[in-house]
Design goal:
458 residues; alpha/beta; Amidase signature (AS) enzymes; eleven-stranded mixed sheet; binds glutamine
Length: 458
Amino acid sequence: MKKSDGKSSLERVKEALAAAKKYEAYNIFTKLNEKKALARAVEIDRRIAAGEEVGRLAGVPYALKDNFSDPDDLTMASVEMLKNYHAPVTATAVKRIEDEGAIMIGWTNMDAFAHGASTENSVFGVTLNSRDKTRVSGGSSGGSAVAVALDIVPFALGSDTGGSIRQPASYNGVFGMKPTFGAVSRYGVVAMASSTDTVGCLAQTAEDTRLVMSIMAGEDEKDHTTLPDFFDQPVETSKLRVGVIGDFMGEGVDTEVVGAVKDYIKKLEKAGHEVAEVSLPILKYALAVYYIVVPAEISSNLSRYDGIRYGYRAKDAKTLGEIYGRSRDEGFMPENKRRIMIGNFVLSSGFFDAYYLKAQKVRTLIIKAYEEAFEKYDVLVCPVAPGPAFKVGEHDDDILKLYLEDVMTTPPSLAGLPALAAPAGETKSGLTVGVQLIGPRGSDARLLQLAAEIEGAK
Ligand code: GLN
């Protein structure tokens, strides 16, 4: 982490809170955690003064995406349905970070239920891009990305189901890690799509990213999909075989994005890695597969919000049907409803084979294509997104255009692979461009070490 310059935890937290207020116009936070953060800083300073063990993140302020549970306050996921929801548990990732002494200063804005790629789809309004306030921050972890980019906090937590950490990281020039599926416990994180949901972080350096990931990673008895921690293991990064995914470097991709990614590739070559182009044509079907499989899982995960057990309940609803119907109608955003409808459609008996089953078969082919590629290459490289941050409202009239922003981030999600977004450069107008480093399952630490090697290289 950036040197504290001899500052106390209290000074650091006060500075972070002041910066959060200074940048209010960006609409980064859904709420600040001022009172508790200040009290915690005082407590950590006291423990430092008493010579007690305080942890590897002692006094470091951080921001938390609003879909992580913390019983001290609301977990709203930027949606009406959860606006008054007090989670009964603490997310494991949050607990592990806090056990190392980090101090949460505020919850960040996101697309409602994490459905989106722009942080426009939130009950709290749009989060603006750190470089250009007429543009989106990306999503769904837009608030977290902007908080890190504007140096309010050195790191923030996010979730990534199909790009929600990587894409806003790319749009704001910071690092964003989506780990191997199962690397970090999802216990206490509002579920989106169970077969691709991951927990990760956004940070200012590759080294910080690795530290935060290694703290969060590892088995958790509360989430049986978790794997042993593989962030701390030593990794070999001399002379790696790098495959550039040619399918994502041509048509439909902004030339300045391609240029920045090519510059990054040159740095990889200069550092002694062996670079070749690889074609993975099957990946062009990943987006279609994603938008069948993920809505199917969303429709199932969101069925729990019935206005009875928890979450929003419509006022004056008289019958059971009215409670279900109106609570869901008033509590969900239009994009949530669209996904529920798509999900129910592709799972319905008449269409299951044609859509859901076929999508799962293609998903298997995508996994196989990656496995074959990783026999020849250690790392695959491509842009994070086809363009830099787009204008607020640009995709309002065409949802497919918004979905297309996910074309390069959804393939690794479907295959459960680790994927890191790293800053690659800027466009002439100063918008940031990210490169995506993708590796076989469990190679998370190697991706981060490679990015650390290239970081700052000319
Ligand atoms: N943009 C993608 C979607 O809308 C990814 C979202 C996510 O990773 N949470 O589904």
